[in-house]
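Input set for joint prediction.
Command: fold jointly, output tokens.
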Amino acid sequence: DGGITQSPKYLFRKEGQNVTLSCEQNLNHDAMYWYRQDPGQGLRLIYYSQIVNDFQKGDIAEGYSVSREKKESFPLTVTSAQKNPTAFYLCASSTGRGTEAFFGQGTRLTVV
Amino acid sequence: KQEVTQIPAALSVPEGENLVLNCSFTDSAIYNLQWFRQDPGKGLTSLLLIQSSQREQTSGRLNASLDKSSGRSTLYIAASQPGDSATYLCAVRTDNNNDMRFGAGTRLTVKP
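tokens >
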């Protein structure tokens, strides 16, 4: 089936650790996005990538890093510099600017 | 910077009622607007995409309208059902960027 797969579904991070969230799509989409969702708030953009080997910071990029070495994959690393990482993280993709965006099922990250 | 607002934040209706959800945005130079549904703890499911040149889109019991000049979109749900209970989010894509700006959502409860 075509779609976007995020893994893991739940992730626990200890203080001072870096963790990486996986996002894979088999829709042949060029653009991919990472959003953070906190209770009662809208989605906030962390990073987005329009093509392979290129990505741009969103509104809340501090403490996060990404790579886009393959069209299908856009992993997000939450570094120890992110002081409040507990949130629901959503990955999305689309073919281009004017087209419909599709989302994965999300990863819930908790600091323990 | 584009700001997206959704009112009301929460809505509770009896089954069978027709209802309207509202989305407003501050910058009318949009490329498109997309409505999503989100169930608790899940990712976003795309409902309707309206391009900036369109006035409305329909899918089943859902109808979304767009008035770009006034910075408003509405999502009309006909003959609501308990299965429609979810959070509904709108997202706007601007002309200058490929990122999507989200409202905080309207949490809909349809009571049997």
